[in-house]
From TrEMBL:
Keywords: Signal. Residues 54-68, 88-101 have a biased composition (Basic and acidic residues). The lineage of its organism: Bacteria, Pseudomonadati, Pseudomonadota, Gammaproteobacteria, Chromatiales. It comes from the Bacteria. This is Late embryogenesis abundant protein. Residues 1-19 form the signal peptide.
C-alpha cells in the first residue's frame, strides 16, 4: 500500500511537472517574441549592409571610369596644346627670320 501511494505520488508529480513544461508562460512568449524580433532586425541589417556595399561598389566603379576618361581627355588636350604651341613657335621663328633679313 505504501509503495502504491509513493508510485501514485511520483506519477502525479511527474504529470504536473510535464504539464507545466508544455504550457508557455508570458515570460517565455515574450522571450520568443524578442528572439523573433532580433532575428528579423538582424536580417534587415544584413540586407541593408549588402545594399550599401553594392551601392558603394557601383559608385566606386562609376568614379573610376569617370577619372579614367578625364585623364584620357586631359592627355589629348595637353598633346593638342603642345602641337599648337610648337606650330605657333615655328611661325613666330619664321616671321622673325623674315624681319631680320
Amino acid at each position: 500500500m505504501k509503495t502504491k501511494l509513493m508510485i501514485m505520488s511520483l506519477l502525479l508529480a511527474c504529470g504536473t511537472w510535464l504539464a507545466g513544461c508544455e504550457q508557455e508562460g508570458s515570460a517565455e512568449r515574450a522571450g520568443e517574441t524578442i528572439d523573433q524580433t532580433m532575428e528579423a532586425a538582424g536580417k534587415r541589417l544584413k540586407e541593408a549592409g549588402q545594399a550599401a556595399q553594392e551601392k558603394t561598389e557601383n559608385a566606386y566603379e562609376a568614379t573610376k571610369k569617370s577619372l579614367e576618361e578625364a585623364g584620357e581627355n586631359t592627355q589629348k588636350a595637353a598633346k593638342q596644346v603642345l602641337k599648337n604651341t610648337g606650330e605657333a613657335t615655328e611661325k613666330a621663328g619664321e616671321y622673325l627670320k623674315e624681319k631680320a633679313q
